[in-house]
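User: Structure tokens for both sequences below?

Assistant:
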Amino acid sequence: MMTRLLVLGLCSLFLLAPVASHAADYRFVDRGDTYYLDHLFENQLVVVLGKENGWVKVRYLNGAVEWVGPSRLLTQSQSNANDTAEKVIVPTIALLALFCLANPAACSDNAPAR
């Protein structure tokens, strides 16, 4: 059971890695720029207030302020691609998990020889 969860988790990381790898380049992030902050299932629009020591200070639409890593900043097109990938990948992984729960032998590490 633990092996299956580990495999599912690793698969999801590998599938989401290409989407997450297109983050903002810290060198080009400027005060006043708008980005989408990478949040699972819902990216949030933020405004850059400044940057320091590799971190970016952003303000959410509700006024909250936070320091974040530049790897979490996405352009609108990157945010849309991220959302699309999550809408496909998450249900696929959920279906695979349900299949393994319903058919443990099919997902077992000790599957019978054929």
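Moving on to the next sequence.
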Amino acid sequence: MPKVSLDMPDQLKADLEAHVGDHGKFVSLADAIRTACRKMLDHLDDVDARHGRIGGER
């Protein structure tokens, strides 16, 4: 799996980390970021489909 490096504001990182760990939804910060990216891409696919900009391929 490729590794990605990015700059992120401290507040955004802290907000994500609040959902990570034993009492959070995600097992790691990387898991939270991957899940957020997948959800965002699904949402963008839905928007594109509504506007006729997607032909079913991903």
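User: Anything stand out in the second?

Assistant: The mean pLDDT is 91.
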